[in-house]
Specification:
The chain is of the alpha+beta class and about 150 residues long. Helices cover about 45% and strands about 15% of the residues. It is elongated and about 70 Å long. About 15% of the residues are buried.
């Protein structure tokens, strides 16, 4: 189950609407961004800086099935409820969709895949060459671990 939530400012009634699986964890993430002045929503960040942290509360609006259509539809519904009153912090109302900036940034990278894929024979040769080589990458082994290995 997914939870549609709102972080509401008690002073002005504005809210940030989102969707998550774990509401407490998501609140901690929002608070971390807000305390460091790095939240993506500028008006939300400005109000957080203006008022105190205790003037904001988070609460669940609705529980929905964990399908993309359900989450998107209900989150947009709740965004619309706040937005029609002019009380929505969210600038991006296209839920679960990358922003235009992210989309433009990702398109050239997706088409610019370079290099050759190794043949199955080459992969087998590389795998056989790595067998028996420890994966510690030169990490030092403590005296306790060395003693345990010699006792085996």
């Amino acid at each position: 189950m997914a939870i549609i939530y709102a972080i509401e400012c008690i002073k002005n009634g504005k809210a940030y609407v989102g969707c998550t699986q774990k509401i407490k964890k998501r609140m901690r993430e929002h608070l971390c961004l807000l305390r460091n002045g790095k939240h993506a929503e500028p008006s939300f960040q400005a109000d957080f800086n203006l008022y105190s942290e205790s003037d904001f509360r988070i609460f669940a609006l609705q529980e929905v099935e964990n399908t993309l259509e359900q989450k998107r539809g209900r989150e947009l519904y709740w965004m619309g409820r706040y937005d029609c009153k002019g009380l929505l912090y969210n600038r991006n109302k296209t839920s679960f969709q990358p922003t235009e900036k992210a989309w433009k940034k990702g398109q050239p990278r997706a088409t610019a895949v370079e290099g050759k894929k190794r043949s199955p024979e080459a992969n087998l040769k590389r795998r056989l060459a790595q067998l028996g080589i420890p994966k510690g990458h030169g990490a030092k082994i403590s005296a306790t671990k060395q003693a345990k290995r010699t006792m085996r």
